[in-house]
Fold this protein.
Amino acid sequence: MGSFHSMPEEIQELADKTGFTLEQIEHLHRRFKQISGDQPTIRKESFDRIPDLEFNPIRSKIVRAFFDKRNLRQAPDGLADEINFEDFLTIMSYFRPIEMNMDEEQLDHFRKEKLKFLFHMYDSDNDGKITLQEYRKVVEELLSRNPHLEKESARSIADGAMMEAASICVGQMEPDQVYEGITFEDFLKMWQGIDIDTKMHVRFLNMEPIAHCH
């Protein structure tokens, strides 16, 4: 993409598609150029230019999410080798804050899109559910920087959370019943009443780490 001021129609099209303001797109374009090294596309290794992201325990999942074709709305599975600026905006749009003028239907769609993005981060094999093994891996990564917590303790935390998920989503289970994993519908139930906007946000105006998932 060239000079912003020379392509007003293209910028407006991106604004209509992603919901960002023209000013936000301009800031994000500068951010894109910083990450890409002034190249037209970003590759996974481009994120090495974000020093603070290095210390995020789920760095690999955050980076992977930018190339997940489900999030890019390109295909039901697979990873892209690189992304252009429009792709970058598509991913960043999941982190947009809720707008005060949204009606109930828009809010519901907006919330589901954010939760779908989070769900994809857990569902690494694209099978439509978060298995115990996938959930264990995420919890182990999140707690990996705690020197006082052993791997077995992290597993116990993950197992307990999965049992709680089963009780929320399935209810009382039979002794021989197996909970195969958290579907997206289950995931929605688990997040009911939780303010997703405080869990997923992005800072537009400074050049700090782009994504904060916690």
Summary: The first helix runs from residue 8 to 18.
